[in-house]
Amino acid sequence: MDTLGRLGEEYFRLHFAGDPFQAGVFGVPGFDAEVPDPGRAAAARQRGELARLAAQLAAVDLDVLDREDRISHAILSRLLRDEQQTLRSGVAEVAVTASIAGPLAQVVSTVPAGTGSDEEYLARLQKLGGFFDRHAERYRQAAADGRFPTELGVRQAIAQVDAYLATPVGRDPLLRQDPRVAEVIASGVRPALVRFRTALAEHLLPVGRPDERVGLCHVPEGADAYLGLVRAYTTTGLGPEEIHKIGLDLVAELRAEFAERGARTLGTSDVDEVLARLREDPGLRFGAAHEIVDTVTGALRRAEDAVPDWFRGYDIAPCVVREMDPAEAENSVLGYYVAPAADGSRPGAHVVNTYRPELRPRFEYEVLAFHESVPGHHLQIAVAQSRDDLPRFRRFAFFDAHGEGWGLYTERLSDEMGLYTSDLSRLGMVSFDAWRACRLVVDTGMHHLGWSRERAIAYMRGNTALSQTNIANEVDRYIAMPGQALAYMIGRLRIRQLRDRARAALGPAFDIRAFHHDVLAHGPLPLDTLEELIVAGY
To answer: What are the residue ranges of helices labelled H in 266-399?
Structure first.
């Protein structure tokens, strides 16, 4: 194996050793008995190993590499740099939260997705006690350094732990049929969560930051950390103020589209009335859980039928629709995607939330299906996994701006493909666009400009059709994961800009199937590398 190949494989193993939960989500074998180590010492070791690989990579002579190896070099260089930045920022130690960024949510959403043996699963559960203990220790260390979490995040994390502990062991979301699992949960996992809760209540709640100071700019060294995270998540040189302005301009454009589509669909062009109808009209809600499942399944099948006209043929894993487990659904998102197992033992899955269907808007679930399954994340990830000729680190990496940017791009693409069944569903497409545009304003507003949580919620309330509960949950997610929410719209904008440039340069020779192949078939890419690839094609 040459030096570049060796470094890529070393990175692959190092990355998933640092995040074995994610390995289970992607179906990567070899890590099913492990848990992450969230401690400061582990982060320092990981950062040191990444720096060692980066130094060796920098010594590789680019002149001797062919085109594909140059791409691998660029991708690996970016991965090593961005992961070091994320570890250096130390955001995790102040991100006490009940959102997906929190340790309990991570465990509940990722551990059951693992494909390991019963013995490996037991070994992982036995290590969860230490996982929660080290999280509590790091939170206390951060607080001792004057790096405090938000008070609301701590309260929500405590409530989340309480809700989990109040669930009988017989309905625990971590259960498997093996009777030993229940014993480990009762004797190991739950006592550790009691200790974790005590640390939250006694050490962190009294020092939590108020809602007026939720942004990273209010944490020592937070401003520089946020700038680094913005660049890592967007894989661009855009700064927070430029992104904030992009968001404001997009929101203004989308309000005009709300007015136009609202007049056609709801009989009013008043944007506030359109948003209120979408948010509050009970006639726009589902009547039963099976209607949600039927909607997303139908959207997936229509998209699969239309794929040949817009994409090249790929031999990829199938995608299924699965209802979310009731233990997870009550406080969870609309839906999410679980990648197929690398060994083919598990298909990709669009996991959809059907809890209390009478509260769930009909107009949101077609666009959600296209984003999460086909032509969105499933097509994207399954194509990357099918590329056996690529190094493993390229097939199983994830750049948020490329991955989530593609998912958002496909929401509008699906309209071009004729996949939406009604003007109401197209309003859902606009609503989802507005949601992601608002992220650019709100994330930078809180973490760079110092906005309060209340101001962020009010801005989203005035410019999206999300419910008040969903808006609050979204804002709390942005507080806990600074910069990540910027990746969606920044990625979508760049992909669309590259498509427009390619069409203008190639004229009648432009082929949408070839363009989509260039975006997908090289695996996950930083946006600057994607741009180089597209530009080289004309």
So the answer is: 271-280, 289-306, 326-329, 365-372, 377-386, 392-395
Q: How far is CA 114 from CA 23, 52, 108, 393, in A?
A: 8, 30, 11, 19
Six token digits for residue 102: 């929190």
Contact (CB, 8 A) for 257 and 331: no
Q: Pairing state of beta strands 319-323 and 348-352?
A: parallel
Where is 55: in which H helix or E strand?
Answer: helix 40-58
Q: What are the tens digits of pLDDT across the range 402-446?
A: 999 999 999 999 999 999 999 999 999 999 999 999 999 999 999
For 311-337, write each residue's pLDDT tens digit: 999 999 999 999 987 766 776 778 889
User: Which 3 state secondary structure label does DSSP give 235?
Assistant: coil
Give backbone dihedrals phi and psi of 177, rounded to 5 degrees, phi first: -65, -30
Measured distance CA(129)–CA(192) in Å, rounded: 5
Amino acid at 325: D
The predicted-structure confidence for 456-509, as pLDDT tens digits, reads as follows 999 999 999 998 888 998 999 999 999 999 999 999 999 999 999 999 999 999
Query: Which residue in the block uniquely carries the two structure tokens 């100071």?
Result: 213
Task: Starting at the earlier edge strand, list the strands of the sheet with 348-352.
Answer: 319-323, 348-352, 335-338
Structural tokens at position 382: 């399954």
> SS3 sequence, 479-522?
HHCCCCCHHHHHHHHHHHHHHHHHHHHHHHHCCHHHHHHHHHCC
Q: What are the extents of the domains in the chain?
A: 229-493
CB 181 within 8 A of CB 122: yes
pLDDT tens by residue, 519-537: 999 999 999 999 999 998 8
Reported as a pLDDT band with limits 50, 70 and 90, residue 338 is: confident
d(CA 401, CA 72): 18
**Strand 335-338 relative to strand 348-352, pairing:** antiparallel
Q: Which two tokens stand for residue 154?
A: 């701590």
Cα–Cα distances in angstroms (integers) from residue 473 to residues 396, 454, 478, in the given order:
29, 12, 9
The tokens describing 136, both together, are 């509590």
Which stretch of DSSP H or E encloses residue 432? helix 423-447
Separation CA 196–CA 140 (nearest Å): 11
The residue with tokens 């920022």 is: 89
* 3-class secondary-structure state, position 316: coil
3-state SS of 384-420 is HHHCCCCCHHHHCCCCHHHHHHHHHHHHHHHHHCCCC
Compute CA distances 19 → 13, 37, 40, 67, 68, whole Å.
10, 8, 15, 30, 27
Rounded CA separation 379/88 (Å): 33
Beta bridge partners of 323: 352
And the tokens for 326? 């009731």
Assessment of whether the complete model's pTM goes beyond 0.85: yes
How far apart, in whole angstroms, are the C-alpha atoms of residue 150 and residue 19? 25
- Tokens at residue 52, please? 């060692």
